[in-house]
Design goal:
By secondary structure, the protein is an alpha+beta fold. It contains eight helices and eight strands. The strands form three sheets. Strands 1-2-3 form a three-stranded antiparallel β-sheet, with no helix packed on it.
Length: 209
């Protein structure tokens, strides 16, 4: 996302976000909608291996992350209808990055913060890919090799955390799918095992030579 620089005649980015109800908390902007919290993370590309991992854009601290430029370049447009921050009903066409760059970004995020939601997003993006299924999704991920600095990092994280059924990645995926509730019945344990195998199937698909 390119942010225009402020000048004397415009509010800064942080002031505009504050005016829309966002607060700066725990190093990110967030806004409460009833029981739901909307998080706004601002990223910029990290183009070289020795590039800094953060930047100031306008008056906002921005994380510099490998692979952001690829996510901007490889996208599809999706039409959505809903309410904007001013509660007006709007229909917009938004750009959504394709599955290859998305997987690289998600695995990087998982490697740094180890959150179950990142594993879930990654696995389901590959498993349920709507333009050719898992095999086509895996082809698009491998197409990032040599084009995306995040690719090698992502594959290493995948190999380290998805080595087998006892590994952290599959276990977190299964736990997220059942809402963090440990299975107490044979059927529950069977479903948990299925989810672990889903995660391993995706990982093995991407780790094939």
């Amino acid at each position: 996302v390119a942010l225009a620089l402020s000048s004397g005649m415009y509010d800064t980015t942080s002031k505009r976000l504050a005016g829309a109800g966002f607060i700066w908390k725990d190093k990110r902007f967030q806004k409460q909608f009833g029981k739901t919290v909307l998080y706004l993370d601002l990223l910029t590309d990290r183009p070289l291996k020795d590039s800094p991992d953060s930047a100031m854009v306008d008056d906002v601290p921005v994380s510099a992350v490998y692979g952001v430029q690829r996510a901007i370049e490889e996208f599809r447009e999706v039409k959505i209808t809903g309410h904007d921050l001013y509660k007006a009903t709007v229909t917009e066409r938004v750009k959504v990055c394709e599955v290859g760059p998305f997987a690289c970004l998600k695995l990087q995020a998982y490697g740094s913060r180890h959150q179950s939601k990142d594993v879930f997003d990654f696995i389901r993006a590959i498993r349920d890919y709507d333009r050719g299924g898992p095999s086509e999704a895996s082809r698009l991920v491998r197409a990032e090799r040599g084009r995306n600095l995040a690719y090698d990092i992502a594959i290493k994280i995948l190999a380290d955390h998805f080595a087998g059924p006892e590994s952290k990645g599959p276990a977190q995926y299964a736990d997220f799918c059942v809402g963090g509730v440990q299975p107490q019945t044979q059927d529950g344990r069977f479903i948990q095992s299925q989810r672990i195998n889903e995660a391993l199937d995706v990982a093995q698909l991407l780790l094939r030579p």
